[in-house]
Amino acid sequence: MSDWIPVYEASNSLEAHTLKGALEVVGIAVQLRGEALSGALGELPANAVEVTLLIRPADLERAQQVLAGYRQGGERSWKCRHCGEQNAGSFEVCWQCGHEPGTE
Ligand SMILES: [Zn+2]
């Protein structure tokens, strides 16, 4: 079961754990790599604590959807029915085309 692939590089441990939780909620198994290095290896600079999220290849598509929603600032995001753009939950109309969700 060594078949893990990197899906996202978090800039810090907090972000990594936030995303890990978001992925696990939808049933995606996540491993974190890099976190253990901070403090363990004295030669590393203090800010070298980027944490890579690893997932299984089968989960890649779903994981990217979850991460795309996160990057767009929404715990809830919606997909425009007109142009297919993914919008943050805080947007009332599609930022790409101005289409309102719920209308045809
Ligand atoms: Zn749109």
UniProtKB/TrEMBL annotation:
It comes from the Bacteria. The keyword Zinc applies. The keyword Metal-binding applies. InterPro entries: DUF2007 (IPR018551), DUF7577 (IPR055999), Znf_RanBP2 (IPR001876). Keywords: Metal-binding, Zinc, Zinc-finger. Residues 78-97 form the RanBP2-type domain. This is DUF2007 domain-containing protein. It comes from Zobellella aerophila.
